[in-house]
Every structure is written in C-alpha cells, then in structure tokens.
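Researcher: We plan to redesign the surface later, but first we want a full-length starting point. Tokens attached.
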C-alpha cells in the first residue's frame, strides 16, 4: 500500500488524520451554487512564482513514498526554497506565508494528473479497495458529474452505513439524486460485521484507510470534510467526530440516536446535527447546553436534501483560538495545534487552551497530563516576535525559528495540510495546578 495512505489513514500513529488533501487557487469559487462560498486565502505570491518549489515538493513526496533518492529530492527542495526566499521574497521566508505554503502542498499532490484515475467513476458509485499490510478495506466513492480538479477543491462527506448495508447500497439508496451528490465527493467504507468493533476496533482503520485512499486522488477540500451516517453508522460518526474534532467541519447522525459517552466540549467547533434521535441524543444536547456548547442541533424530519443544506456552509476551524480537550478511551489526545500522550479513560484529564495574536500569547490550563507539544504557525501568532506561553500559570517567553526540518516532518506525518500549516514546535512540561496539590 502507498505509504502516504498508511500515514493518512493510521489514527493510532499520533498523526493529525486525513490531513494531506489540500486546496488551490480554484477555491476562490464554490463548486456549485448550492455550496456556500468562503473567503479566499490571502496569498502573497502568484502561482507561477511557486511552480518550482511545488514541483520539488512533489518529487520529494514521491521519494518519501518510494524510499528512493530521498536525500537528493530533499536537497533539491531545500535549494528551491532558498532561491525563492532570496530572489522572489528578497530575503524573506516562505515559511512565514502559510497560505502560499499551503498552495505549494496543493500543487505537490498534482490532482489534475490524477484525474485519469477517477474519470471512470464520475457521476456514479465506484467500488474500490485499499490494502495495508495484507489487510484489505473495501469502500465505495461517489464523484459528482463534471468533476475536475480545476473546479475544486470539493466538499467531501465520509458516510457510514447502517449495520449490514454495503457501501454501494448506502450511497445509492440515500445520496444518489440528492443535493449532496451534486456538489460533493461521498465516501463510504465497508464496516466490520461485528458492530462492537466499529469505534474501537477494525471499524476505525476501515474509515480512515478508505478516506486516506480517496484524498490522495480526489481534490478534497480539507476544510470541508464532514462525517455522518445512518443508524449505527450515525452513532459511530458522532463518536469519531468527538475523538478527532480537529479533522471535521461537521458531523451528523441520521435515523440515529448518538450521544451516549460523547463529550460535548470536544465538539465546541464541530457542529452536530441529529435527525431521528431518541433519549441518547436528547441527553447529549442537554449536556452540551449545560456546558455552553450550542452547536448540537436536533431535526427529527431531516432528509438527504435537508442534511445537504445544513452541511453547505460548514467549514472547519483550522486554528481554533479557544479549545477544550477531554480525553476518552483512546482519543482525543489533542487538537489542531497541540497534542499530548494518551491517558487513562476516566482519569479526569482535561486541557483548555487559547492563543491571542494581539498579545502573541498561548495560554494552557491542564490537569491529568505531565507534558504537551505545542505547534506554531504565523496563521496563529507572529513568529517574528517572541511568543509568551503560559502553562498552568507558569510563564515562559520563547523565540521560534521557522524550521523547514519541522515543516517537512509535519508534512510527512500529516500534521499539516494546505489549510493548516505549522513550522515550529516545542514540548512543555505541565506543572501541577494548585487544586491538585
């Protein structure tokens, strides 16, 4: 199996999931009038000024995947970055331009070249497989009529079927002919026969392996990846959104009763819609309101088109300024811009984080963990200036050098995507709170 699929799809490796799909200059226009437009990134450089760096990154990614001539490809990439910084940016640094750097990553994926790999599936449900270490995952994918990478990137929905339903049946029965199918790529994995494995067993890699394969070939918009499903699939989808809130723009449960064991605070920036929910969903919404989370919606009559309308304006918060993470059995173990080692479920661990660009400050309040890693970007803070970091009241001031070594490491581990760029990081010890002493 392609090693990038492995990295993209392997949740337990500690990577930010599903993060390689990216956007290009075409994101200035929506793919359909039924999809709400969003602001264009504030690019400084023109496409042709980034062409050589993009090509060098594409070659480097290929070398990483094949483990062939990696050092040579990396030297070439570094050389092109140095030339760009010296000649085009007049001594500046592209690592300080997250929007332009994101465009470089987009071009490195070369979705136009890959269109021939998806052309046969345009306007129909296509059955596919992906293999990793001898394990084969089956999935189905719908590609909208008129699909073209130049018209993307495309909103994408990972949809989980009802128990016992095949991926092809699920997409054909519930999404074909809907508004969603007009505008979005739809991916549905084949789930394990044992429903107990859907969240904490084989179901998790089935979902991420399938999507990891799709996002390498289809022009997926990383800020418009939503997850949902029907019946048990809907319950599973909301649980996975709770485990990986940094990845999804929204989640939905259709003809489902999700919410049991789901922590609303983890979904502060991930809107959830529940249609046809029962006691669990009602209690989930009540717990959310008590916690001050207003993003859980109930709609007992929603059909496929109503869900499509609800999803149309949902955009991932790439760099949430205020976050709360309450670990579960395995995940979450962080958010987009910080992460920590797994802790025991029920340990009472909790991390609240925020950043303020005006004061160039990061503030963390944490209990139940001993250290955490912070990731830094000029999209969050001004890295040309000292950054103040306050962890449980203990203050430090650091000056971060933007590092191409760290950036490339984040690309390889999928901790970055074109809408979320990091170029520096540091590990911080977490002193005990006074209440813990």
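Model: Full-length starting sequence:
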């Amino acid at each position: 199996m392609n090693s990038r699929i492995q990295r993209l799809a392997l949740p337990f490796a500690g990577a930010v999931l599903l993060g390689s799909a990216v956007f290009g200059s075409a994101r200035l226009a929506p793919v359909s009038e039924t999809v709400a437009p969003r602001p264009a990134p504030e690019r400084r450089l023109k496409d042709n000024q980034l062409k050589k760096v993009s090509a060098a990154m594409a070659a480097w990614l290929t070398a990483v995947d094949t483990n062939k001539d990696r050092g040579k490809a990396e030297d070439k990439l570094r050389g092109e970055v140095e030339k760009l910084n010296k000649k085009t940016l007049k001594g500046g640094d592209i690592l300080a331009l997250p929007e332009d750097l994101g465009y470089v990553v987009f071009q490195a994926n070369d979705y136009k070249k890959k269109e021939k790999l998806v052309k046969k599936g345009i306007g129909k449900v296509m059955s596919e497989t992906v293999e990793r270490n001898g394990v084969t995952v089956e999935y189905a994918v719908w590609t909208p009529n008129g699909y073209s990478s130049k018209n993307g990137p495309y909103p994408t929905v990972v949809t989980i079927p009802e128990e016992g339903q095949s991926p092809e049946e699920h997409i054909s029965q519930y999404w074909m002919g809907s508004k969603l199918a007009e505008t979005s790529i739809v991916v549905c994995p084949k789930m394990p026969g044992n429903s107990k494995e859907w969240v904490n067993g084989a179901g998790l890699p089935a979902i991420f392996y399938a999507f990891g394969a799709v996002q390498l070939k289809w022009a997926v918009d990383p800020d418009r990846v939503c997850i949902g499903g029907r019946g048990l699939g809907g319950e599973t989808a909301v649980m996975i959104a709770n485990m990986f809130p940094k990845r999804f723009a929204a989640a939905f449960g259709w003809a489902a009763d999700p919410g049991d064991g789901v922590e609303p605070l983890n979904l502060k920036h991930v809107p959830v819609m529940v249609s046809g929910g029962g006691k669990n969903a009602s209690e989930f919404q009540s717990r959310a309101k008590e916690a001050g989370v207003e993003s859980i919606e109930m709609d007992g009559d929603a059909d496929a088109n109503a869900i499509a309308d609800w999803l149309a304006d949902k955009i991932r918060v790439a760099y949430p300024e205020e976050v709360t993470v309450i670990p579960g059995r395995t995940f979450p173990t962080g958010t987009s811009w910080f992460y920590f080692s797994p802790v025991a479920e029920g340990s009472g661990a909790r991390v609240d984080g925020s950043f303020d660009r005006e004061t160039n400050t990061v503030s963390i309040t944490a209990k139940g963990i001993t250290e955490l890693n912070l990731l830094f970007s000029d999209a969050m803070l001004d890295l040309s200036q000292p950054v103040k970091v306050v962890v449980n009241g203990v203050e430090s001031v650091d000056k971060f050098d933007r590092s191409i070594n760290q950036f490339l490491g984040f690309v390889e581990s999928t901790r970055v995507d074109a809408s979320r760029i990091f170029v520096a990081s540091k590990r911080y010890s977490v002193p005990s709170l006074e209440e813990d002493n």
